[in-house]
Fold:
Amino acid sequence: MSTKPLSPFSYCSAAALRMAARRVSQFYDAYLAAEGLKISQYSVLAVAGRRREKPPTMNELADELGMDRSTLGHNLRPLERDGLIALECDAGDKRVRRIVVTELGRAKRRACRELWALAQARFEEAFGSARAAALGGMLTSIAHELDLRSMPNSDSQKRPGHVR
Structure:
């Protein structure tokens, strides 16, 4: 593995995470291309497909995936267009929409699962199994446990001389 000198920008955690996420997403996308899905769409399909007895609502699925409803909607549109999912009204509350994975969607999920497993194995081979497991643990911790809600909320917490 070659190591390039880091640019000053790469010390920014957000920039480094985004760069790595783009690179890894492109890698997984290449494996899933044969089935016509991107990793972001496969993730939605896989998570929605786990719950057969009571399909998730838009809010539940967005929360589980760690994304806002707008981003989820963007990922759902092609899945719905291609008949992989259906948005159905909840039996108890017609205002609530549930994401139902269709038979075609379940078949696509199974086919993509095999391709995903190949990509995952190749990633672990290239990156190292132990490092991949540690990375997964760190990213899960960031996504679910790290409290980053404290934002500057008053003028006293903002930088002096803030440009507006």
Remarks:
- The mean pLDDT is 88.
- The first helix runs from residue 13 to 32.
- The chain has one domain: 16-133.
